[in-house]
Amino acid sequence: MALGKDKKLIQQTLESLKGIDKQPGDFEFFVGLDGFVDEIIHVVDKRLDFEKYTRVETLAELGDRISRAAGLSANIELIPKQIKLGGNGPIMANALRNFGVNITYSGCIGYPDINPVFKELADACETYSICEPGHTDALEFTDGKLMMGKIEILKEVNWDNIVERITEEKLVEIFSRADLVSMLNWTMIPYMTDIWQKIQDVILPKAAPQGRPFAFFDLCDPEKRNTEDIAEAMEVLAKFEEHYKVILGLNRREASAIATVLGVELSDKPEAVSLEEITRKVAEGMGIYSVVVHPVEEAGVVVGDDYYQVGGPYTSDPKLTTGAGDNFNAGFCLGQVLGLAPEECLVTGTGTSGFYVRNMRSPNLDELMDFLALWVDNVGEDF
After folding, report:
1. DSSP code for 114
2. pLDDT digit string (tens) for 137-149?
3. Which of 65, 174, 180, 310 is most exposed, with minimal Cβ within 10 Å?
């Protein structure tokens, strides 16, 4: 029954995309504020010869290997597979750029000169760099990824540096014209809450956005921040609702952490309740336009009192998972500005992510529609 419902919804979304009145190029997005050089890495299981090896396939296998080394030692070989632009903001902005959205990007993409890994993004967008990028060693597995970040430089992402690099006047202009603003990676940017507050106090009273645009936030694994910091951030984030339709995007683990901080009542432990329950409860606790939660295998969204859910396009052989969530965010936000229904936005989000993990790049709009057509014929299958 659920598979038939998903198939109908995917087909409906495909038809909606074919019939849209506006195109992605009609919209302006502001995205920031992080930036990383991502080094995609495989972990060696067995070395067959100097050229060939077998890979540690799962995080669980790596965990077992590390646990067995306790009290002893271990030699773990890492194979760099790719160096690419990284950070939640650049990956999301790059995916949106592929769709044709006009992007203004500000973040850690190299200062005073743009780091070469961000050159293509910088050439295609209006960019304002704040500082040098961080660095992430992204260990890839079939069941997830281990992100090992070097983030000390992100302390330079603060209000004083932002207004020095961009100016208040330019920020007012940017926020006035943006159909969607997205400020990502609160977890790794220590002064992000203060930046949000300054934007609310200094920039938005002077800005004149058309209508009531969208503001999209992804905290990006807040578990390592203390409860008081998270609670304060959620309070400040919710205040953007005075100017925007605020969307909070979370993976399943993040949703559990936020539910705990908000102190919402659940029928079981946060990690044990259904996707619908955790999404509804976080949405109730936040009091914002929308909360979307996207585990690997499905996604759910609350808008107002309504909940929608769709299964994802499953593959047992993802080629690249680092950035899959950011591609989901890009596809979901594209659906929002195009005026798609909330459940259709789940499909554009999961479809964008599904294309990305198979092809190691983000789709353009035609490629997304082709992927949705392929998905319709393979709902519930490993493809």
Report:
1. P
2. 999 998 888 999 9
3. 65
